[in-house]
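Morning!

This is the sequence you dropped in the shared folder:
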Amino acid sequence: MAPQRVIKKYPNRRLYDTRISSYITLEEVRQLVLAGEPFEVRDARTDEDLTRPVLLQIIAEHEQHGQPIFSTNLLSQIIRFYGDAMQGFVGGYLENSLKIFLDQQHKFRAQLNNLLGQTPWSMLNEITERNLELWKSMQADTVKPPPADSGEGDKTARKRR
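The structure's back. Tokens below.
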């Protein structure tokens, strides 16, 4: 296995790929992401890890052009979580939700490939409904509110003793 690719970011904002000994663009970094190539971006002077800020920069540029993924409302909600007690939970929740979405997308594409030649629209509707129910179930299990304290809990606990 090849060592992780290191890209150095210089003060002039240029990115230098140490594996190929050449300057690269943000678009080329994006292509590394799409190819699933592991890499990290490091500040050339301080060796600070700048991978996340560079990835956020790529996202910001793509959000400005074409059809954005994040609505203004969604971005506002995410910003509100910073400093909130739930901040640590949100990242994991979003990551797990996206993983489940990607798994479902992979299964959907596999099923679609198996269905070619059959009546695809009725089968697509059935698959979509099944995936939607799975998604709703996952969300309901992940974000269950704590049970309301009606005072009954103490009585139940006393009865058990």
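Headline: Residues 5-64 form one domain.

More detail when I'm at my desk.
O.
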